[in-house]
Amino acid sequence: MRTTPDWVQHAIWWQVYPLGFTGAEQTALPADAEPRHRLAHLTSWLDYIVEMGASGLALGPVFASETHGYDTADYYRIDPRLGDDGDFDELIREARSRGIRVLLDGVFNHAGRSFGPFTEALEQGPGAATAKWFSFTWPDAWTPETEPGYADFEGHHQLVALNHDEPAVADFVADVMKHWLRRGVDGWRLDAAYAVPSSFWARVLRNVRAEFPDAYFVGEYIHGDYPAEVTDGTLDSVTQYELWKAIWSSLVDANFYELAAALGRHNTFLDTFVPLTFVGNHDVTRIASRLDPAPGQSAFRLTQALVLLFTLPGTPSVYYGDEQGYRGVKEDRAGGDDDVRPSFPASPDELSAVGQPLYRLHQELIGLRRRHSWVHAARTRVHSLSNEQLVYEVHDAGNSLFVALNVSGQAAAVPVPAAAREVLAGESGLDAGAGKLALPPNSWAVLGPGQD
Fold first, then answer.
1. Beta pairing class for 187-190 and 237-238
2. What SS3 state is found at 419?
3. What is the tens place of the pLDDT at every residue in 292-346?
4. I want to staple 80 with a disulfide (CB 3.0 to 4.6 A). Which of 35, 64, 194, 328 is the partner?
5. What is the pTM of this model?
């Protein structure tokens, strides 16, 4: 397994989409506009992160862009809708003072049309110094008034694909990463990493790690051979979309066989790397909306999803608002992400009391996870499996936890291993001598070996 920085074992991220969180404008400010200094809004939530038990702030795009942040215009400039360098530095200082790590979102597969090297190439033509940064199709008789064809990101013509075979692009990306690591960040999420050759990441990260060996790099991958991508790209981790899908789908369908299969795959990944695990992020329908379509009728499924997130091996990430039960549906249309990227109030004091029970559950489960930090790179084995009940063990060389779930509306008795001697969390009745656990309807429990 790849050796990641030691601090990552204890990392639990709170992921934020800053432009949405701060209520920023949907499009870039005029060139002569004053910065809006909205990053201070985030600073006022740092204590909330600590109180929840998280230890990291994973930021979505913060660089100058045209609209949603993934159409970057200037990788060295904070988006004026969020503030300026001074605001960023203050956020980093305040995070550092609380022991909070910071992860930046690096959009290095593509850029916006106003990205300087792209506009330079359009103005100067095939002979421009940056012409090879992009995959242009130049007309036979180019003139400054003639725009060439170019590769884009998945058909979005406003998102200009970078040419990752060009060494100057690799040098540029490495320089951007090092610039912000010098400013105090701890690592990078690599957006759309799946669309970039692994050899590019390997070249860039070798350059960056020469100066920052303790930095953390997690790639966005949805499908595919995760271990090969990590190994070939020399990444630390990737986004574990397979497990995300299995968690919510198995709970919705009452089919723990699906989850058990995913746990087997998850074990094989852990032989190479520790995945980034999540039940929500800025690109998917809110977990509360998936699991609780009619509010209040099936909220137990949301609880069980969180139990899975915090008791399974991986580096957990909580998407802002999920800890309060925020709802939102992602739609495949222009503006279809807005519902899952909402603004937050000025301070935690302004949150609705409705979300407090779920926030307290996050505190309880994160506390349990912190007391068993070895879970991060452990393995799982399934002990009892049916459509509606599951018992699995999380274990390493010298430690074990046992997790039991019941998605049935009826009480259930499930067998548990003899080593399960004590109920650590949840609602259940354990007969350790008989190796039986009584689970109420729609419930969960976490068991430990107890004291000798």
1. unpaired
2. coil
3. 766 655 588 999 999 999 999 999 999 999 999 999 999 988 889 999 999 999 9
4. 35
5. 0.96
